[in-house]
Amino acid sequence: MSTNDASLASASNSAGSLTIDWTINRSTDPNQCNQSVVSDFDIIVTTPSGATVDEVMQRCVDGVMTMALSPGAYAGNAVLLDAAGNERTTWLSIDPFTILSDSDLMISVDFPANSFQ
Question: What is the pTM of this model?
Fold first, then answer.
């Protein structure tokens, strides 16, 4: 598992990137993380067949992160965690997406109230 500081994560052979932003109940207010007792956003990027490519965590209050990915087809899952690393939400599926060379793909994920455990 790697930690991302909102800069482009390093990866060999990477020619594209994924920028993902997240909201809680459609709110971009960072206070939603504190009110929901959430510390981190965790994303697992997979191949379409489900093999893990990378797992990256980012502070919840940041609301956005960018990670380098080689061109290709991917899918993913995301969850919000508390400070102890416990899941605060159910895992949300990220629909399949394609990374192209020299491009940045933007994906948004919302954690609705009913996703909290």
Answer: 0.85
Q: CA-CA distance, 60 to 32, in Å (whole number)?
A: 9
Domain layout of the chain by residue ranges = 2-110
pLDDT, tens digit (0-9, with 9 covering 90-100), for 54-113: 999 999 999 999 999 999 999 999 999 999 999 999 999 999 999 999 999 999 999 999
Q: C-alpha angle 7/112/68, rounded to 5°?
A: 20
**CATH superfamily assigned to domain 2-110:** Carboxypeptidase-like, regulatory domain (2.60.40.1120)
User: Using CB atoms within 10 A of its CB, is residue 21 exposed (0-12), middle (13-18) or buried (19+)?
Assistant: middle
d(CA 85, CA 42): 10
Three-class SS of residue 48? coil
